[in-house]
Amino acid sequence: MSAIRTAFQLRYALVTWPAILAVLGLVLWVLLPGWRWPLGLLTAAMVVIVGFGLRDLTQDRHAVLRNYPVAAQLRFLLEGIRPEMRQYFFEDDKDGTPFPRDKRAIVYQRAKRELETRPFGTQYDVYREQYEWLHHSIAPQPAVTHEGMRVLIGPGTKQPYSASLLNISAMSYGSLSGNAIRALNKGAKAGGFFHDTGEGSVSPYHREFGGDLVWELGSGYFGARADDGSFDPGRFAAVAADPQIRMVELKLSQGAKPGHGGVLPAAKITPEIAAIRGIPMGQDCVSPAYHSCFSTPTGLLEMVARMRELSGGKPAGFKLCIGHPWEFMAICKAMLATGITPDFIVIDGKEGGTGAAPMEFMDHVGMPLRDGLSFAHNALVGVGLRDRIRLGASGKIVSAFDMARVLALGADWCNAARGFMFAVGCIQAQSCHTGACPTGVATQDPARARALVVPDKAKRVENFHRGTLHALAELVAAAGLAHPADLRPHHFLRRTDSDKVRSFAQLYEHLSPGQLLTEAAAFPIFAEAWTQSRADSFARVA
After folding, report:
1. Left if phi > 0, otherwise alpha if psi is -120 to 50, otherwise beta: which for 333?
2. What is the pLDDT of residues 10-23, one digit of tens each?
3. How far apart are CA 261 and CA 388, in angstroms?
4. Where are the alpha helices (H) located in 339-416, listed in sequence order?
5. What CATH number belongs to 146-259+294-531?
6. Helix (H, G, I), strand (E, B) or coil at 478
7. How far is the C-alpha of 389 from the C-alpha of 344, rounded, in Å?
8. Angle at 13 between CA 12 and CA 15, to 5 degrees
9. Where are the domains of the chain?
């Protein structure tokens, strides 16, 4: 019955009803000899349409055609009769000046290994405020190889991890379909980069192809959750022992909705999700806005150290979107007081986050990535701890230029979510929260998820990763540098006014190692946060 209901859904109408009309036309052709000529034409036309529909349903290149046979051909027809790059890259604002809309085209081209060049030069207004660019060198260098762009995380742990400079950011099973998770992980395995599980725990779809995982643990402690919702160290240790899990990450906040919890309604909890997350059926699943196992900076660091120990010595760290500056300074003071440091910190920008969130949080809560990253990097430099901690960056990172920009501001590696979503077929229909994703990426509807063909999309994930790192290597070489780690703020410039240009070195404050401990007063922004912080509390010192 479910198969019959699926066949009669609106999105299959241009296959189902022509098939019915073809059968009806054939019957009438037999019963009404005088009408055989028009009935024969009608039947033949319906058979042709059904044939096109069946081809769309069975091809494995376009998920939207598998979910919307025949009807979705209109989308590709329109693409074929207009300048394709302008559709993907630009749209006109009120004064008719083109500006970048999104970067889907970059991902699509790299994922499909299509030609990436574009004629007629840049379509950016290079004299417009906020335009940014990278200095090139008159003496370019040879480009570093793909294999050479890695960073060692947790060198002092029992199980250090060599990570790629570009990895898949946190996206949970439940938010994404099982096929999307499988495609992402299969691509990560082939490309040699990691796949962050998101806070929805480690699912069978993450494990199927054996790609490297970073297990993200949120305030709901899914996968390591006691019956009362608290953290269960025994369950955590059992899951973290899996050799496929290379690092463990404690999520404090995410860019889309920092300081906000979440609720998975009981109606959306399937037996599979309940088993994966370790939650009961028939009850709303609440992810609090805060963690129950610690409440102070010192407690946070002790939790990270505990996760490192329970995981058998794997690199352990935390992710956050920077909020009150004094709270991050309090964490720095706790590091100095306890001697405990995380192996890594991931800074998530408020512009990040592919999931649904309250509008006010998405638009106006949290620090943007580059500001938060620069602040965290310099705070750690200023207290003399930067060399012990690796920094990851996430938040609308799609292109090689996006990567180069944050690497120059202090990141050691980058995580990307939406770029990899585009690679597996996302067309930004913005129906993620409805379950009606047209390409099977963000849905738990099996009929929709089947449209996403795992082997094809996994290859696109691998291609996008490889192509973006290749582009990064070319950018770095053009700047006359040997490695992305050599990028610095003075290599990037921003037009701050129609006739004024400043480098990132001028726009962002930069501290020297230990300078915050000896010369804090010379840096007002850092000094104020430093004096307002304390190691044993997140509260602001009056």
Report:
1. alpha
2. 777 888 888 888 88
3. 31
4. 359-364, 369-382, 400-408
5. 3.20.20.70
6. helix
7. 5
8. 70
9. 2-58, 146-259+294-531
